[in-house]
Amino acid sequence: MSKVRLWIIGSIGIDAIETPAAQRGELLGGSVTYACAAASFFTRTGAVGVVGSDFPTAFLERYQRFGIDLAGLQTRQGPTFRWSGVYEADFINRRTLDTQLGVFADFSPELPEAFQEAPFVLLGNIGPALQLHVLDQVRGQPFVVVDTMDLWIRIARPELEQVIRRANLLTLNDAEARLLTGRHNLLECARAVLAMGPQYVVIKKGEHGAMLCSAAGISLIPAFPVEQVEDPTGAGDCFAGAFMGFLANTRAERIDEGLLRRALLHGSVVASFGVEAFSTERLERLTAAEIEARVQALRSMCAV
Amino acid sequence: MSKVRLWIIGSIGIDAIETPAAQRGELLGGSVTYACAAASFFTRTGAVGVVGSDFPTAFLERYQRFGIDLAGLQTRQGPTFRWSGVYEADFINRRTLDTQLGVFADFSPELPEAFQEAPFVLLGNIGPALQLHVLDQVRGQPFVVVDTMDLWIRIARPELEQVIRRANLLTLNDAEARLLTGRHNLLECARAVLAMGPQYVVIKKGEHGAMLCSAAGISLIPAFPVEQVEDPTGAGDCFAGAFMGFLANTRAERIDEGLLRRALLHGSVVASFGVEAFSTERLERLTAAEIEARVQALRSMCAV
Q1: Proportion of chain A in helix, strand, coil states, percent, rounded to 5
Q2: Which of A90, A211, A301 lies nearest to residue B218, judging by beta carbons?
Q3: pLDDT tens series, chain B, 304 aa
Q4: Between B205, B222, B261, which is nearest A220 by CB?
C-alpha cells in the first residue's frame, strides 16, 4: 500500500433520502464517505471519522473497495450518525426530516501517525472546533482545504474564523459565502473571504459550476450538465474530494491557478457522476476512462 | 450608410426603475432599445417598433448616435409604452409596479422595404401574433432568432408555437424553458424545444451564463462576473442583440456551433457592460476595445 497523500475528516452517516426519483433508506453517507470515494480515483486517501457499533461491515468493505485507508476511523459504542431528508422537485432544495448525532456527538478525532505528514488535508464539513483540534495534530505544511456550512457560520463563527485563517483554500456555496461575508455580489464575497486569510476561495454554485478566486484573478469552473439526477446528496463533497485527490496526485512543484482549474474541473466531473445514483453507488462502478471522457466533453462544451 | 443586415422588433418604452443601487425615472427602455444598441457595436441594425407623440427627441438622438436605422420606427398619436418596476436586494427578482401600454396596444408592425431582405432577424419579446405578422413580411431565408417570455407561454401558446416552428433559434430563460416544456432538467427542456422546430435553443441563466443546444451537442457560455451591477433591466436583450450583431457581422459562409459560441460570448460580454448602468448609459460610452478586452478576460477565466 502506498502512503496516504490526502486525508479527509468529516461526518460518516447512515442516510434515508427521498428525491423525486426514488426513496431509499440505510444508505452509506456523510461528507467523508463521498469525498474519500471521489478522491480515491486519483490518490491514496485516508478517512478520519467515527462510526457506531451498528455500522454495517458491508459499508466498511465498500470503503476498502475504494482503497480508502481506514486508520483514522474510530468505532465507538452506540449508534452511528443518522440523517434523513427529502428533496423538492428541483432536486436542489431539501428539508431535513431527522438528525440523530449518535456517536458523532462526542467525536474527538485523533490523527493516525501515518497521516500526520500527508501533504494534502481536506477538513470536510464538521464543527470548526473539531477541524481545529485535528489540524493541531498535523506536522509539516500541508495544503489545507476547509469546507463549511451555514450552521457553523451561525453558531460557531469565532472558531470558524480561526480555521479559515489557517486554510490555504476555503470552499463554500454561494448562499454560505453571502452569509459569511454579509455581501451579495459573489466577487465581493470572494474578496472578503480572501481578506480573512486563505490564498484561494472556491464558491460553489451547484448546477451552475463554481468560481475560484485569488489575488491572481478569477477562474470559472463549469458544471457538467447531468441528464438524469437521482440523488444530489454529497455532490459538494464529491467535488471537493476529487479536486483534492487530483491535486494530491499531480506531484506538481507548486500549486498555481492552472493546476487548480484542472483539479476543479475533475471535481466537477466526478460530482456529476455522483448525483446519478444514491450514496456512492455510481462511483462504485465509475472508471477512470469515464472520468477522462467526461472531462474532455466538458472541455469541448466550453471551448471558445 | 451601409445596408441593414439585422433588424430587431420588440418594445420601446419609458421606464421608471428602482434597484438597490438607485432609483431613476424617464429612462429609455424596451427590448428593441437594448438589443439594437448592443447589436450596433457589430453591424448595421434596424429597429422596428412604435412610440407615442410624447417620446422625447433626445431619445431618438440616442438611437441615432448608436447608428440605428429608424425606418421601422412608427410614431403614433398617444402615450409611449411605460413600465415601472422595483428590484430586490439580489438584483434579480423584480416586481412590476405599473404597466401602461399606450400606443403599443395597437401596434401593427410594418417592415420597411429596406429591411425585408436583411439576412438576420431578431424577434424580440412581444406578442407572438405580432412576431408572426412581421415575419410574414420577410423576403428570402433570414436566420431568425425568437425571444419570448412567460406571459406569452401562458396566454398565447398556439401562436407562440407557430413562431417557434419558424425560428432557427429560440432564446428563453431557464424558468421560461421549464414553463414551456413542462420539464425541469434543462437538457430535457432543450430537447423538447428542439422537437418544436428550431435547430438551436439558447437557455439563458442570468448571472450563471447560458447553454446552447442543438442536434450537434451542448455549448456552455459563461457570464462575465460583474463587479458593480446598477440595473439588470435589458440584460437578456443586450445578450441577444450583441449575439445577433456579431453573427450578422461575420459574413461567414455558414453558421456553425463554433461561430454561435463566439457570438454568444460577445453577447455575454456586452450584457455585462449593460447592467453596469441604467438604460443604455453604459453602452453609450462603451468602446470596441473594452468589449474585446472583456472577451479575452472571459476566455482566460474559462481556459482549462
Answers
A1: 40, 25, 35
A2: A301
A3: 679 999 999 999 999 999 999 999 999 999 999 999 999 999 999 999 999 999 999 999 999 999 999 999 999 999 999 999 999 988 888 999 999 999 999 999 999 999 999 999 999 989 999 999 999 999 999 999 999 999 999 999 999 999 999 999 999 999 999 999 999 999 999 999 999 999 999 999 999 999 999 999 999 999 999 999 999 999 999 999 999 999 999 988 899 999 999 999 999 999 999 999 999 999 999 999 999 999 999 999 998 8
A4: B222
Evaluate whether residue A212 is within a structural domain.
no
Q: Which three cell numbers stand for residue A134?
A: 485535528
Q: Give the Cα separation of A3 and A300 in Å (integer).
A: 35
Distance of CA A95 to the CA centre of its chain: 20
The shortest C-alpha distance from B282 to chain A (Å) reads: 19
Inside any domain, residue B294: yes
Residue B133 sits at φ, ψ, to 5 deg, of: -55, -45
Residue A126 lies inside a defined structural domain of this protein: yes
User: Are residues A255 and A249 in contact, defined by beta-carbon separation less than 8 angstroms?
Assistant: no
Q: Which range marks the domain in which residue B132 is found?
A: 6-302
| CATH value at residue A276 | 3.40.1190.20
**Entry pTM:** 0.93
Nearest to B240 by CA among B189, B188, B175, B167: B167
Supply B274's cell numbers: 449593460
Q: Quick check: is A180 in a domain? A: no
Q: B146 CA to chain A: closest CA distance, Å?
A: 23
Task: State the total domains in chain B.
Answer: 1
Which residues are paired to A99 by β-bridges?
A83
Identify the helix (H) or strand (E) that includes residue A169: strand A169-173
In chain A, what residues touch B229 (CB-CB under 8 Å)?
A: 185
User: Which residue, A161, A128, A126, A138, is CA-closest to A6?
Assistant: A138
The reply to whether residue A217 touches residue B304, judged by beta carbons under 8 angstroms, is no
* CA–CA–CA angle B158, B209, B286 (5° rounding): 105
From chain A, the residues in CB contact with B304 under 8 A are 221, 261-262, 265, 299, 302
Establish if A269 touches chain B: CB-CB under 8 angstroms: no
- Chain A residues with CB under 8 Å of B218 CB are 225, 301
Coil, strand or helix: which one is A296? helix
Report the distance separating Cα A211 and Cα A186, nearest Å. 9
ipTM of the complex: 0.90
